[in-house]
Every structure is written in C-alpha cells, then in structure tokens.
Amino acid sequence: MGHVTHGIPLDLATRLVESQQLRAAVETGTFRGDTTLALRALVNEVWTVEADHGTYLEVAPRLVGQPGIHRLEGSSDTVLASIAPELTMPALYWLDAHSLPWGHASSPSSTT
Ligand SMILES: C[S@@+](CC[C@H](N)C(=O)[O-])C[C@H]1O[C@@H](n2cnc3c(N)ncnc32)[C@H](O)[C@@H]1O
Description:
The chain is of the alpha/beta class. It has a domain at 26-99. It contains 5 helices and 4 strands, in the order αβαβααβαβ. It has helices at 10-20, 34-40, 53-58, 60-63, 76-83, and strands spanning 24-28, 45-50, 69-73, 91-95. It has a 4-stranded parallel β-sheet, sandwiched between helices. The longest helix has 11 residues, at 10-20. The structure holds S-adenosylmethionine (SAM).
C-alpha cells in the first residue's frame, strides 16, 4: 500500500518549501481549511479554491481576515487560470479538489 494521509503530508511540504525556497502555495479543494492554515504557516501567500458554495461559506470563519490567505470560490479547472497571473514566485501546488461522499463539509463526523 502507498502512503495515505488526510490533508497535505506536512513533512514533504516542509521539505519542498525549504529546499525550493517557496514563498507561495495553491490548494484546490479548501474543505475545512486545515491544509490552508498549515500551508500558510510555511509560506507567505496561499491561494485556496473551493467549488462547493456551502463549504466555501462554512469555512469562512476560519480563514477570512487571515493575512496572506486568498479564498476563491469556483471550480479549480477555471479558477486556477485566474490565479496564475498573480503567482510571480515559485509555488507549491496541492491539487486536492474532488467530490466527497456526503457532498460538502458538514460530514456526519463534524456534527458529533
Ligand atoms: C478532500 S477535500 C479537500 C481537503 C483539503 N484540501 C485538505 O487538505 O484539508 C475535497 C474538496 O474539494 C472540493 N471540490 C470538489 N470539486 C472541486 C473543484 N472542481 N474545484 C474546487 N474544489 C472542488 C470539495 O467540495 C471538497 O471541499
């Protein structure tokens, strides 16, 4: 079996940021914002893209007003192209946008 993690493998992300001197990150699939915040602790600027409107609203209290975090709503296949012009520095990409069995961030486990 391969190495399976929930969220970004932080040890790998840290090694990439340090070895490549990365100052920015792009995440597709914001979900609950865990990786967004973890990446922000590693780099100065993080762009995160979420397609599901309910999830985008639910995670807002954790991310809105955080310096260096840029939230974008929409599907990554179109939104990524709009981020590209702003990325003037090498960036780490965490491409993690996919559908969820329960459809949005309010999973059964988040309500227990
Ligand atoms: C597994 S979660 C992401 C987890 C998060 N990246 C992390 O590391 O904690 C997948 C997310 O992708 C979102 N999603 C699904 N299709 C998408 C798309 N085309 N563009 C952007 N987000 C999408 C889902 O709504 C869900 O919030």
